[in-house]
Specification:
There is one protein chain. The chain is an alpha+beta fold and 76 residues long. Helices cover 12% and strands 25% of the residues. It contains one helix and five strands. A hairpin with a 4-residue loop joins β2 and β3.
């Protein structure tokens, strides 16, 4: 998978960050969600054990123009 760095709001340039892939997906680097209530809610919504959730600031979405078509959901 090829990652293209799109931006960060970190003064150190590492986390949080957002990347675009050559598979039509996004990869986000953020803070691991560890809050028990949030994890329970994610589990209730079907988050499988082999996945995780990360939290990112909304400002990172600004690295993608609102009118840009990021494509359809990829199939794996």
């Amino acid at each position: 998978m090829k990652l293209t760095f799109r931006g960060t709001n970190s003064s150190y340039g590492s986390c949080p960050s957002v990347y675009e892939t050559d598979r039509g997906t996004l990869v986000v680097q953020g803070w691991r969600v560890t809050d028990a209530e949030a994890i329970a809610a994610l589990s209730e919504r079907g988050l499988p054990a082999h996945e995780t959730a990360v939290e990112i600031p909304l400002e990172l979405l600004g690295y993608f123009p609102a009118d840009r078509d990021l494509g359809s959901s990829p199939t794996r």
